[in-house]
Design goal:
Layout: E1 2-6, H1 15-21, E2 26-29, H2 36-43, E3 48-50, E4 67-72, E5 75-80, E6 96-98, E7 106-110, E8 113-117, E9 131-138, E10 141-148
Parallel strand pairs: 1-2, 2-3, 5-6, 6-8
Antiparallel strand pairs: 1-9, 4-5, 7-8, 9-10
Length: about 150
């Protein structure tokens, strides 16, 4: 299963991000969506599952949940906006923790848990790259990839 992962669009839906996400069977948005047009553009590619970030105070994004507990191909996913607010040990409970907020890409296994942050896909923050992510999920496991956008 090819899952596209995006975060921190802050109302800016880059055509380069949409191009990378084409072919995704599902898109996860880890918060700070911004305007409804962002979700509309992503939904034109694949079904979208999204959470609310700290800027999401209006439109459809304001109605999104703060966290999500998901399962795909037998793997448990936990999605929240800011990994610093994770108040439990995901080891033994989840296979992947997906977060955004920092705009810093992360694709790191700690024990049996993949901590995955696709980075920021919206306006550039400081000197951080503009990125999106991809998860290749099978019943046997998963692999994450960070893709820097050519902007």
């Amino acid at each position: 299963m090819n899952i596209g992962v995006i975060a921190d669009t802050h109302s800016k839906m880059r055509p380069e991000a949409l191009e990378v996400l084409k072919g995704s069977e599902l898109i996860l948005h880890a918060g700070d969506v911004g305007r409804d047009e962002v979700l509309d553009a992503l939904e034109a590619i694949a079904p979208v599952v999204a959470i609310r970030g700290n800027i999401d105070k209006a439109g459809r994004a304001a109605m999104l949940p703060d966290v999500l507990d998901l399962k795909y191909l037998g793997h448990a996913f936990y999605m929240l906006h800011d990994v610093k607010t994770l108040d439990f040990d995901p080891q033994g409970r989840y296979r992947v923790v997906i977060a955004g907020h920092s705009h810093k890409p992360r694709n790191e296994w700690i024990g049996d848990v993949l901590f995955f942050n696709p980075g920021g896909a919206g306006p550039r923050r400081f000197t951080l790259p503009i990125t999106v992510g991809r998860l290749e999920v099978s019943e046997d496991g998963m692999a994450g990839e960070i893709i820097e956008l050519p902007v």
